[in-house]
Q: What sequence folds into this?
């Protein structure tokens, strides 16, 4: 239990104790784990991995089959003239990727290698490749069942495909229950994992590069101050409506992601001779790990779990962001969405992993999380930890903005677009920025993490029930592609 | 798609500037002299590869309609009304995209023989950084381009 809360007495303590009980009960259910070959395995990770396998098989390997077409769609090869000026496939993808690429790619990978050795990387990549089919399915549904509001805006995501999609199958009651459950989980999840945790990690890295406990951010109140400053920025955007800041960060995040991958490549180039050995360690470690509890199963679990944390496939969050795209064929956005786990997990996470493995940073011990990644870069680029600190803050900020949007959409769904509820939600969100930076509050973080993964329960039940719809749309679309009904648009000015 | 009455066309790009207005009047004179049909076009600068926030995306459809309405009401329609009353056969067009490319597309669609634009006389630094529509246009146009100061 947290020091901060425990120090207080009276009603605070009562509430805290009650909350702790609720939190522990929720975590016990969501993260209920079984022990397989000596390694603990939360069932929710199996639930996500199973979904990815089912969708991969059901859509006959759309992950690989659809890859080339996805790139063509993002390039705009199929954009009709009347769609110019609307939200493009590229924009929907970029917005969704900005929300997903974050600490999971930097810190999560380091955690995976610390726990599972280099071999965890291979299983992470495999999980990422399979997760592409999950994103394909949920994002197609997000566009198919989105709602076009009277004011010209669009609302989409699991809330809408669960309620509207299942109603269309004569399961309106079940749809409403699943949609409401999803929205509630999404609101709580957005406050912790999508917010407090991000603020917390951003502060940790900033504190580390400014001299740790003795540095400029070392004082007792530094966390609160950092949190207030961060909350002010988030508040200016989400309440003040100053979109300029959001636009700047959203532009910076793809740039930082590219820059990050380049930095990884520089480190890899400097250690070029170690690369074959690194691949050997990754592949060998995946099948016959040494000194890892649970052996091959243990490594597999670590990799799959970190991939799920990083790419969010199956949680339904990305379907909210993808649903604004302009298209009359929902499947096209599914194709584009399958690139998301590829970029997030297969490219960026692999880059982090290779960097950590070739530099041997994981063998020295002592460091973990962001610090381990930071140390790996430092061996080749001594100034990089500072850049990494800036990147971490930007990634955290953009993830917070993305999740505040998801939470606000869930609030709007539950309260029938109430303006008051929106304000209350956003105020609470800002409070959690400060709480997150000021203390780790494991109780709240644990509860929120559980909530984020809880989103996958109503979401995937609904997606299973609706996957036939996606299959039908995919079959129609593929037939139209073959017959030329859907064809590339010739751009005259090229 | 060539204009219905198969007349040669003239296209003028306007952006609300005085030079654009002068270009429109020159284009009107040219079209009348040739017996051609004039298109007065405004292109709202837009790239499908710009990065947007989720809220901007959600509202984009409405924003696009609003941008088109404003462009018509404030830039294109007043010119079209004035030219039509001078006896020019004239159409109004508002599109999104990269201005020079879209103007060339319009010229091609309408089988135009001339393209006209105004120039803003922007600083060298700005041109160096962002380019200019007339500058881009003369590089890619397939018909003669007239730039009006």
A:
């Amino acid at each position: 239990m947290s020091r901060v809360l425990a120090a207080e007495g009276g009603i605070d303590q009562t509430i805290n104790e009650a909350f702790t009980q609720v939190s522990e009960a929720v975590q016990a259910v969501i993260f209920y784990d079984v022990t397989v070959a000596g390694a603990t395995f939360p069932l929710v990770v199996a639930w996500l991995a199973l979904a990815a396998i089912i969708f991969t098989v059901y859509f006959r390997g759309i992950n690989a089959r659809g890859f080339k077409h996805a790139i063509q769609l993002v390039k705009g090869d199929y954009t009709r003239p009347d769609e110019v000026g609307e939200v493009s496939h590229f924009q929907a993808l970029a917005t969704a990727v900005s929300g997903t690429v974050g600490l999971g790619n930097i810190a999560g990978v380091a955690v995976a290698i610390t726990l599972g050795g280099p071999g965890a990387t291979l299983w992470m990549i495999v999980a990422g490749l399979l997760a592409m089919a999950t994103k394909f399915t949920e994002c197609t549904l997000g566009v198919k069942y989105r709602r076009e509001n009277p004011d010209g805006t669009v609302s989409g995501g699991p809330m809408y495909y669960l309620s509207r999609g299942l109603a269309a199958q004569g399961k309106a009651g079940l749809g409403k229950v699943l949609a409401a459950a999803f929205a509630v989980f999404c609101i709580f999840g957005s406050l912790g994992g999508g917010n407090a945790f991000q603020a917390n990690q951003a502060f940790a890295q900033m504190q580390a590069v400014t001299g740790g406990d003795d540095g400029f951010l070392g004082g007792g109140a530094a966390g609160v101050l950092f949190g207030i400053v961060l909350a002010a920025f988030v508040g200016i955007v989400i309440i003040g409506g100053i979109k300029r800041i959001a636009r700047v960060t959203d532009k910076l995040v793809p740039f930082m992601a590219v820059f990050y991958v380049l930095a990884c490549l520089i480190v890899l180039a400097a250690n070029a001779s170690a690369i074959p050995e690194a691949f050997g360690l990754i592949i060998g470690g995946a099948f016959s790990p040494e000194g890892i509890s649970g052996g091959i199963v243990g490594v597999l679990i670590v990799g799959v779990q970190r991939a799920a944390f990083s790419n969010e496939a199956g949680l339904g969050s990305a379907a909210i962001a993808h649903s604004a795209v302009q298209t009359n064929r929902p499947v096209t956005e599914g194709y584009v969405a399958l690139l998301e786990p590829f970029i997030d997990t297969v490219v960026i996470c692999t880059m982090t992993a290779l960097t950590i493995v070739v530099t041997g940073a994981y063998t020295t011990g002592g460091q973990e999380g962001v610090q381990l990644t930071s140390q790996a870069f430092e061996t080749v680029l001594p100034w990089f930890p500072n850049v990494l600190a800036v990147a971490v803050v930007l990634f955290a900020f953009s993830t917070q903005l993305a999740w505040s949007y998801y939470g606000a959409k869930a609030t709007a769904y539950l309260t029938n677009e109430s303006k008051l509820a929106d304000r209350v939600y956003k105020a609470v969100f800002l409070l959690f920025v400060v709480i997150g930076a000021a203390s780790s509050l494991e109780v709240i973080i644990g509860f929120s993490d559980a909530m984020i993964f809880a989103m996958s329960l109503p979401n995937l039940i609904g997606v299973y029930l609706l996957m036939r719809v996606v299959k039908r749309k995919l079959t129609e679309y593929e037939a139209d592609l073959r017959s030329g009904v859907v064809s590339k648009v010739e751009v005259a000015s090229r | 798609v060539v204009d219905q009455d198969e007349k040669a066309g003239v296209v003028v790009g306007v952006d609300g500037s005085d030079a654009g207005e002068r270009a429109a009047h020159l284009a009107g004179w040219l079209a009348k002299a040739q017996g051609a049909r004039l298109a007065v076009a405004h292109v709202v600068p837009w790239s499908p590869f710009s990065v947007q926030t989720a809220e901007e995306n959600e509202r984009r459809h409405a924003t696009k309609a609003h941008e088109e309405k404003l462009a018509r009401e404030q830039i294109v329609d007043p010119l079209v009304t004035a030219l039509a009353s001078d006896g020019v056969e004239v159409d109004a067009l508002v599109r999104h995209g990269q201005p020079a490319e879209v103007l060339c597309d319009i010229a091609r669609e309408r089988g135009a023989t001339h393209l006209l634009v105004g120039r803003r006389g922007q600083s060298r630094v700005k041109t160096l950084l962002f380019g200019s529509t007339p500058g881009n246009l003369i590089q890619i146009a397939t018909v003669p381009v007239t730039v009006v100061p």
Notes: The first strand of chain A starts at residue 33 and ends at 36. Chain A has a mean pLDDT of 85. Chain A has 23 helices and four strands. The CA atoms of residues 117 and 285 of chain A lie 7 Å apart.
